Fold beta-ketoacyl-[acyl-carrier-protein] synthase III.
Amino acid sequence: MANATGLISAYATCTGRRNLSSYGISRSGFLSVERNMKRVFLCSAVEGVEGHASGAPSSKPRASRLLGKGCKLVGCGSAVPELMISNDDLAKIVDTSDEWISVRTGIRNRRILSGNETLTGLAIEASRKALHMAQVEPDELDLILMCTSTPDDLFGSGPQIQKELGCKRNPLAFDIRAACSGFLLGLTTAGSFIRAGGFENVLVIGADALSRYVDWTDRGTCILFGDAAGAVVVQACNDDENALLGYDVHSDGDGQKYLNATIKDKEAENVLGSNNGAAGFPPGLSSYSCIQMNGQEVFRFAVRCVPQSIEASLVKAGLTSSSIDWLLLHQANQRILDAVATRLRIPSDHVISNLANYGNTSAASIPLALDEAVRGGKVQAGNIVATAGFGAGLTWGSAIMRWG
Ligand code: ACO
């Protein structure tokens, strides 16, 4: 699999476990500080067992730790598929053009899963990079949140990722399904587990393969999406170091009609024989329809709700938009990024955008763009990043965080 950040030479040269300065992260004394915090939580969540649940695990709890109520981001990583599809490639299969797509969306290329690639594989690659940057071993993870709406396993991919990463203490791993808001909700969920539950190291993954649910004959949607994965490590710290400064999250099921991929039943005979149709039991195998979207309504929703949400997060953080070093929105459409930046009076050179290369990668877009910006030296330690996710559900939310 290609490295999304393979464009950035710093990655290849700066992966030493003790040298995080090139990522903008200073960890000097960090562990010793946090392990001596005053606030005490019982870490039942991390008192895992070694070995596999299916075997006879030996009960070997990790020592209870003294944790603070803050949390900070200490590492990021990303991965994208090999196969790149350009606008010109799409123009060969639907009635569109590079000019229309790039002018209306800013997108020029996207990556699509192919061959033996899996979404879980991308998520694992992104996770390993994030753990490496964070200097956190898989065994130190207390929780894995896999934010995806397109898992390889209907029941969730989190536990599979946990296994592949080699987390022997069986930390909790589960999926969060909230489309393009998934990563943002994963981030705030990580913060909640750390603050209320005594968890210390939480891996938050945003990964999606919407190419699986795109109607490749629909030029209104197939031009938008790409596949990718990104991950961050969120770590407990004391209150003084807290870097998740404020957040705001919402949903509105009434807007589901504007963006969905709902379940549809296949003909019963395809699956379970012919004697199940009349009574409706047993039911036929189900699948999901392709993505249905009213682009204009989704556009209006994003441009209206995202600035409001960021302003609400700023208030909670006790900051104003002039404090924002980087605006990092879900990478849906350059015109949405521009409109939100204009409303918040954020100059365009403070807006992170990589959608030209990857399109809308749903839950992956924020951690993918963050990873590129960190490894490329744009986002530096201490920078204030305003991030926001929005999409199907409808769901949306924002967070103000300090990197490093
Ligand atoms: N190529 C050429 N023409 C096109 C294409 C295309 N790919 N797609 C649409 N058109 C045509 C339409 O048919 C229409 O033609 P008409 O005027 O003859 O009827 C014309 O272009 C304008 O179509 P609109 O839909 O009005 O175009 P718009 O400027 O709204 O752009 C777009 C469409 C890019 C989808 C935009 O609405 C958008 O980005 N919306 C937001 C989508 C989004 O952000 N989703 C995020 C969430 S995704 C998730 O959560 C899973």
Summary: Residues 1-21, 24-49, 56-61, 268-275 have pLDDT under 50 and may be disordered. The first strand starts at residue 70 and ends at 79.
